[in-house]
Structure formats: structure tokens, C-alpha cells
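Summary for the steering committee. The consortium agreed at its last meeting that each partner would contribute one worked example illustrating the joint modelling workflow. Our contribution is presented below. We chose a case with several input lines so that the handling of multiple components could be demonstrated. No manual editing was applied between input and output; the record is shown as generated.
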Amino acid sequence: EPEVTQTPSHQVTQMGQEVILRCVPISNHLYFYWYRQILGQKVEFLVSFYNNEISEKSEIFDDQFSVERPDGSNFTLKIRSTKLEDSAMYFCATRGYGRNTGELFFGEGSRLTVL
Amino acid sequence: AQSVTQPDIHITVSEGASLELRCNYSYGATPYLFWYVQSPGQGLQLLLKYFSGDTLVQGIKGFEAEFKRSQSSFNLRKPSVHWSDAAEYFCAVGPMMFSGGYNKLIFGAGTRLAVHP
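What follows is the complete predicted structure of the assembly.
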């Protein structure tokens, strides 16, 4: 069964450092998303990405965040200067093309710990 | 405003007992509805989804959910809970109409299920 793959599974970083989280989408999927879940809280939408550009972003997704698909396969989330409150589980999700393909397929998540 | 409400933060049931987790939504258009399960430290696994048609949908692990448009609800049920069902359950809603790069899901706050032996 096709799956979304995320790396790293866990990253510990110092406040102020840059972090890049990587996602390999399901091969024929065209829509990509990042979600965040702070420990014990709900899953929150960060950003959606389609046709090599951001299609929607939340208030959380400020100038410290960026996404790109540099090589046509990996989909990355970059946090330029991490803050303590960025500590969370970050989920990548992807979706196929078509009218009734509303289902998002989620990766296992990347846990980010900012010290 | 679009929102999903899961009124029960924490539910405890005995193994073998029946289970119902509540989900209510507020959405401007006809929605897609989903239930995801998350075991501790793990990702989100899709249990079931409703797009159209029969309002009672069957999912994996013996779960089912019923869409009630009049009540804006999509409650998750299981007739007999197993200890391995202990996890966090999230209800989510998204737009039914294909809309390009959109179709973000809005999640409820989750219901944590504990199962007593």
C-alpha cells in the first residue's frame, strides 16, 4: 500500500536554529499539506501546496516557515529560526487528483523538540 | 465558521462494552467527513470516511459511523471495544467539491479513549 514517508522521525534542536522536515508523497499525488500537533492538542492546518505554489496557509504559517518541492519528489517544511513554541509533531499529508479524492494520506510525523 | 466539535475529551469504557464517540460539525457546504485514530507517538490512521450515499459507513477495525445531516453529526461507534482500541480519535471535515489545491481538513480536538480490562 502506498504511503507518505517523513524524515526525520524525531529532531532535537536549539532555539534559533534552522530545521528542515522532509516528506516523500505518494507518487501520483498532486496536493501536499503540512499539519502540526502540539503535544496534547488538536491537529492544526499549516499550509497546502499545489502546482509548485502555496494555495492556502494558516495564521500559524508566518514568515519563519516556508515550503518547497525542490526536486519534484521531496516536499519540505523549513523553519528558519526555531522557537520553543515550535515544538510539536509535524505531519505531512498528500492527496490525489479527482472529484472524490478528499481523503488525505498522512505520514507518521516528525517530532520536533526545540530546547 | 467551519468547525468540528468533539464534546468528550476523555472516555473510559470496559473491554467488550459498546462505544460511541460524538462529533458535530459546522460547515458551509456539503462536507466530506472522516474519523482518524492516533495511537501514542504515532501518526494518523484513517478509520473511515463519508463522501456520499449510504449514511452509515463501515470502517476498519470494526468501527462504523453514521452521518446525520439534520443534526450535523458524524458519530463513531463500535459494538464491542477491544483493549487495543485505546487511542485518541479525531473527527475531521473537509469540502466535498473539488477545489484545486484546497481541501484542507479541519480537525476536532480529539477524544482520548481508555479501555479497562
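Chain A is about 0% helix and 50% strand. Chain A touches chain B through 29 residues (CB under 8 Å).
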